[in-house]
Amino acid sequence: MRIVIAGAHGRIARELGRLLAADGHDVAGLIRNPEQAADLEHDHVAPVVLDLENSTLEDLVQVLTGADAAVFAAGAGPGSGAARKDSVDRAAAVLLAEAAEQAGAGRFLQVSSAGLDAVRDGRRPEELDEVMYAYLVAKLAAEEDLMARSQLDWTIVRPGILTNDAGEGLVELAPQVPYASIPRHDVAAVLAELLRTGAGVHQALGLVTGTTPIPDAVQALQPGR
Questions:
Q1: pLDDT tens for residues 4-27?
Q2: What is the DSSP letter of 223?
Q3: What distance in Å separates the CA atoms of residue 68 and residue 73, rounded to the nearest whole number?
């Protein structure tokens, strides 16, 4: 498959790129900073310098034309304010999904976040600061946009608390999971397995460390709607 990863220099995305390239897929990675290109080339991922916040739909359609799948793994990152949570975690995700539809890249994975129920009613819980609230609102809006796109075989993955621990290969992957942690390596491995198998279409799935081997957890997913 030809697979395009947005936010390709992130820790989950880089691990995913390495896994997919090792499986023989043609992987392209969208990055904003050209200085990151050498890292992607080292991973056998083709770098594409493109700033999602300042690109047109046509720019992205051109990149995605001929692709079989797209993965949104971008994020504004730590230290960014509420405005960039919206411009990256929402608007860039929506732009990539629209481009995937227009380009005919039918498989679409979106890395979202746990904790979205806290902002579904539009009110800000007292325990959330302004930036975290903006982040969750942006992720929720991106999910809602993607769920409405019937032309895409989308899957949304909502990881728990991300860690840099070594991957265990054991997860819990389901619409509802406990609030817990998961190594970034295991998140990438689940994404790779979802792409490999085509499982989980039209499902939004929580993901935390559990007791089920990743291939079995993915295989157990109910068929998509």
A1: 999 999 999 999 999 999 999 999
A2: P
A3: 17
Task: Decide: 186 and 167 in contact? Cβ < 8 Å.
Answer: yes
Provide the phi-psi class of 77: left if phi over 0, else alpha when psi is between -120 and 50, else beta.
Answer: left
Type of residue numbered 90: R
Alpha-carbon dihedral 7, 12, 17, 19, rounded to 10 degrees? -170
| Distance (Å, whole) CA 158 – CA 167 | 17
pTM value is 0.95
As beta bridge partners, residue 171 has: 209, 212
Positive or negative CA dihedral for 196, 198, 203, 209?
negative
Structure tokens at 172: 């819990």
**Separation between Cα atoms, residue 166 and residue 151, nearest integer Å:** 36
Alpha carbon of residue 182 to chain centroid: 15
112: tokens are 């979202």
